[in-house]
Structure formats: structure tokens, C-alpha cells
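Quick one: C-alpha cells for this chain, please?
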Amino acid sequence: MTPYDRDDLEGWEFKILRATTQKFRHRENLDRYLEEEAQSGWELVEKFDDTRIRLKRRIECRENDRRSEIDPYRTWAGSTPNAQAAVIIAITVGALVLIGGIAAYVANS
């Protein structure tokens, strides 16, 4: 991880953008998210791994936040862990209901 001294931090704000899947593994996906973040003044500091990147921007960029198409303080790329868990649970429950229905049909046949 990048070390900082006082001069590196003065006038800057930082955030980490996370993904529940490996969204930053492929360069074209990473570039797409960096282009979106750049609209709010964010720039890449470092890529930790395929699911986390650190960004920074000048504090003055906050003045343009109202015009941004994305939330300039978003911390998740794509779905959040809760949303992903809800989808997995819904698919699992649906599959179990389907299997139960098939089993009941076969048992009554």
C-alpha cells in the first residue's frame, strides 16, 4: 500500500472502490470505472487487487458533485454485497421450490 506524508494528503480526499466480483481484473472494465469516477475528479492511486482500487481527488472537485451522473462517494462498483446475497438467496429458494414441485409431481404420478 502506498505510504503518504503530510504534503501528499493536503488538499486531497481518498476513497476505496470495491467490487463483490473481480470487476477490475480486465483492463477494459477497470478503464470504464475509472472514466466514470473521473467525471467527479477521482483518479487512480493504486490497484490493490481485482476487487479494490484506491482513488484520490482534489477537495475543490466537491463543487461539481451536484452535476455528477454517479454518486461521487460511491464505494461499490456494481452490486453491493447485500444485493448480491439477496439474488443468491432468491435463486436458491426458487431452485428449492422447483425441486420440491418436481418431487411432489413425481410422487403423485
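The two ends are 63 Å apart (CA to CA).
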